[in-house]
Amino acid sequence: MYKKIKSPIISLEKINISFNNESILKDLSLAIKEGEFVTLLGPSGCGKTTTLRIIAGFLTPDSGNVLFRGEKINNVPAHKREVNTIFQKYALFPHLNVYENVAFGMRIQKKSEQEIEKKVSEMLKMVNLSNYIDRNIDSLSGGQQQRVAIARALANNPKVLLLDEPLGALDLKLRKDMQTELKNIHQKTGITFILVTHDQEEALSMSDTVVVMDKGRIQQIGTPEDIYNEPENAFVADFIGESNIIDGIMLEDYRVKFSGREFDCIDKGFGRMKPIDVVIRPEDIKVTTPENGYISGKVTSVTFKGVHNEIIVDVDGFKWMIQTTESQEPGDEIGMIVYPDDIHIMNKSSYSSEIGDYSAFSDEFYEEQHQKS
Amino acid sequence: MKVKCVLYPYLIWMGIFVIVPLALIIVFAFTSSTGTFTLENLIDVGRYSTVFLNSVILGIISTVICLILGYPMAYFISGIHIKHQNVIIMLLMIPMWTSFLLRTYAWMTILEYNGLLNKLFTFIGIPKINMINTPGAIVLGMVYNFLPYMILPIYTVLSKIDHKVVEAAQDLGANQFKVFTKVVFPMSIPGVVSGFTMVFVPSVSTFIISKMLGGGSIFVIGDLIEMQFLGNTYNPHMGSAISLVLMVIIMITMGIMNVLDADNENVVI
């Protein structure tokens, strides 16, 4: 007997969609489990919002299936789907007050006034807006409007909550607070959350699963730790956090060559003498004297970032980024130490040639410095 | 300070062409031909209450017809591609480039007993209908002339409604009909109110249309006022009093509309 596997709540199967002959999503397949907090992460134009709109029912894919608990819902219109959306700019009803905004969905369903009142006050209590029940939408701040939008969407008891860059319009401090709040609401309600964002930090700190997208394709699906520590290709490594991506050759299992030197590493299974990309995170590089370092180079710029200094080091023309608490001066010769644990090997991809070192970065920095002086 | 300087010509214009005439009307309305203060003129206006009633009824009928015709039109225009929107708005405006009088004359030739329309009826074997010089002709003239003033403000409001709000309503379970009744229409009420005002005010006070298309079948306030200033019964004091009462009626109507508008902000239809 096979163990019965719980079917995912939302599945996308080989979705293709194009606008004006431009392909936006290419064979996109994705399964989202019940109760999961999934984030679609990618740069603008990667197709993440399109994916969300397909799930919401505002767009119909050209080909492929959208399944809700195993049932095809391609042609089910938005108003009949058991999903609710929190829109980017909240899209609250300006002609209704806070109470009526939250009650909107229930009024459509013709719920009793008692039931509506109970649910509205429950929802507003959850988002800490109980005192704003009679207020006009215009009189609320951005953060408060955001909370009304959350309450309005949740008041409908959705099976899946879609969040389209909900925090994009808020300032940094408020955004952090709302991140925590949304995470709490997710835990409290147990509803499946699908969040769209271009903010990698937001994605890493909030989600159970991160789906990294670019050019209409999924680049990697994994836990935030996986995505950060084991990026699958140069795009993911570059998009999530800072990374030094270096051309290298996998000599054999656990042995890699780059920057003119051989290193021990912990990856295997790439074959012998295979060209690969090496990722080393800036914070994993230890600074030492040139004699003690595995690789040595010249510091070209130092930027103070608060917690650490960000140093750009020129190693035979390749610019590395290092984040260190030690202070260096531009022009210093330094050595760099990298431990096997911190060397991550990726297969070559179409991104390998596009994504290089930090020379562009230091040029920009140089120009900025000159403009200031 | 700069802004204030720019305002001066406008203020002077307003002073000469709005405030002064208004003051003159008030002065004339409250004085007799010998220049002494009197309420007689205003009291005499009561004699013309049927004329006022006729005018208001014709005005309301035309305005309501404009609303019924104009709202769907505005809704349709706001829903199509922006390029086509501009073309249609242009088409709506073009007739307004022709003189108002000329267009009304055109209707005379169409509606006359031996006019275009009746010729067409005879041609297809329908008996001639007496159309000109009826209240219906007046209403037609008003609707024809003032319809753009209903469509434009409603269109402006409708086209400004964020499509995301419509999507939000769909997302919360509203079908197309519910989206309209619960979101789009309530949000468009300011446009309806200003359209209503922009059609009702000229409809109530017009005299050209009733003169040309009504042919004296219905006597409206406009005719009455014209008669006091240009007609046989030359009496600017009486004319001013009638104008003043008309202004008050219009102001009351607008006040009612504004109250309705304000109420609607918190009322679910």
Task: Note the main attributes of this structure.
heterodimer; A: alpha+beta; Rossmann fold; OB fold (Dihydrolipoamide Acetyltransferase, E2P); 2 domains; six-stranded mixed β-sheet; 9 helices; 20 strands; 26% helix; 32% strand; elongated; disordered C terminus; B: 269 residues; mainly alpha; MetI-like fold; 12 helices; 0% strand
Describe the structure.
The complex is a heterodimer of chains A (373) and B (269). Chain A has 373 residues and is α+β, with helices and mostly antiparallel strands. Chain A has nine helices and 20 strands. Chain A has helices at 48-56, 98-108, 113-126, 142-154, 172-189, 200-206, 224-229, 234-239, 359-372, and strands at residues 10-19, 22-32, 37-41, 63-68, 71-72, 83-86, 160-164, 192-197, 209-214, 217-222, 244-252, 255-258, 261-264, 274-280, 286-288, 295-304, 309-315, 318-324, 333-337, 344-347. Chain A has a six-stranded mixed β-sheet with strand order 6-7-8-3-9-10, sandwiched between helices. A five-stranded antiparallel β-sheet of chain A has the order 13-12-11-14-20. A five-stranded antiparallel β-sheet of chain A has the order 15-19-16-17-18. The longest helix of chain A is centred in the middle third of the chain and has 18 residues, at 172-189. Mean pLDDT of chain A is 89; it is low at 1-5 and 362-373. Chain B has a single domain (47-264), classed as Orthogonal Bundle (MetI-like fold), CATH 1.10.3720.10. Classes of the chains: A alpha+beta (373), B mainly alpha (269). At the A-B interface, strand 6 and helix 2 of A face helix 8 and helix 9 of B.
